[in-house]
Specification:
Blueprint lengths: L8 H12 L2 H8 L3 H15 L4 E4 L2 E4 L1 H21 L11 E7 L1 H18 L3 E7 L8 H6 L3 E5 L8 E7 L1 E6 L11 H6 L1 E5 L5 H9 L5 E6 L5 H5 L5 E5 H11 L1 E4 L8 E6 L8 H20 L2
Parallel strand pairs: 3-4, 3-5, 8-9
Antiparallel strand pairs: 1-2, 5-12, 6-12, 7-10, 7-11
Helix pairs in contact: 1-2, 1-3, 1-4, 2-3, 5-11
């Protein structure tokens, strides 16, 4: 494939056609006439040797290849948009939005302080946090290419640039009035008690460690947010594994107490990961440096 011979404007047309599934609406979306969009569709069909859009009754549906290209085109468009919006310099007073993927834990523990610093130092900057998808491990490239960064601990994704932010550690929480847990947990407690678990994949290093110790958690409830764990533990016999920084914030107001693991838990080092296309962009360099500075302050303050 000789990219020099391709018209990259066709990426814009292809995305609009695949998402709208209508030539007229796709043309209106990108500012092209109906004949011009029809011509673009013809060129795309010849390139891919596929109809891409097939008429079914009175409407169009995507062909099998068109369906495959739908997500790939969106990813390619995002990469190109971010590539060509790169800047040689950046003034934090300029209007700019950064999109970060993060769990509710990362937003509560790091994102809130980061947003406060940005508010004070960069009045033109907006932050948008979106929830970590379950596909983060399986489709890391697409996720990173469509956002400015992912807040994620080490041990889940790799082979992408990252800057370390702060350290945390894993602890357990039980109800304040738990009937059978004293001041210290035992491994037997972890095996016999029902669990509340965060079900996304990126807490896998901590869960894998339990398996290596011969402990198989008996999960009674699973949720999509770390901040929900204390609410589902309080007033029950359940137990949950959670980050210390979050537990210490939530424990006083949720009726749970924090206990250390009965083993040496794997470390938790939070980092900001990004796609290499951002590496030399001045705005993104500012983002990373500011995030790292906030993370260092958190490290100095301790967990």
């Amino acid at each position: 494939m000789n990219l020099a011979r391709l018209d990259l404007n066709l990426v814009v047309a292809l995305r609009a056609l695949l998402e709208e599934r209508n030539v007229t609406r796709a043309g209106q979306r990108v500012g092209l006439s109906q004949p011009a969009m029809s011509a673009a569709l013809g060129r795309l069909r010849r390139h891919f040797d596929d109809d891409l859009l097939a008429r079914v009754g009175g409407h169009y549906e995507l062909t099998a290849l068109g369906q495959v290209l739908l997500d790939r085109t969106s990813t390619a468009y995002d990469v190109l948009e971010r590539l060509f919006s790169s800047q040689a310099s950046f003034d934090p007073k300029e209007s700019r939005e950064f999109s970060l993927v993060a769990s509710d834990y990362a937003v509560a523990v790091f994102g809130a302080e980061f947003a406060r610093v940005v508010h004070e130092e960069a009045p033109g900057v907006r932050l948008r946090f979106t929830q970590t998808p379950v596909t983060v491990v399986d489709d890391t490239a697409s996720l990173l290419s469509a956002t400015d960064g992912v807040l994620m601990p080490h041990g889940v994704i790799s082979e992408y640039p990252a800057t370390d932010l702060y350290d945390d550690r894993w602890v357990f929480i039980v109800s304040d009035d738990h009937p059978s847990v004293e001041e210290h947990l035992t491994r037997q407690d972890l095996a016999r008690l029902p669990w509340v678990a965060y079900r996304r994949t990126y807490d896998a290093p901590a869960v894998r460690q339990l398996g290596m110790l011969g402990i198989e958690p008996r999960v009674e409830v699973s949720v999509d947010g770390f901040q929900l764990l204390p609410l589902l533990v309080a007033g029950t016999r359940r137990i949950a594994l959670v980050q210390a920084r979050l537990a210490e914030r939530l424990a006083p107001c949720t009726g749970v107490r924090v206990l250390e693991p009965p083993y040496e838990a794997v470390p938790l080092r939070q980092a900001l990961w990004w796609h290499p296309v951002h590496t030399h962009d001045a705005a993104h360099i500012w983002l990373r440096e500011t995030a790292a500075r906030v993370g260092r302050r958190m490290g100095d303050a301790g967990a």
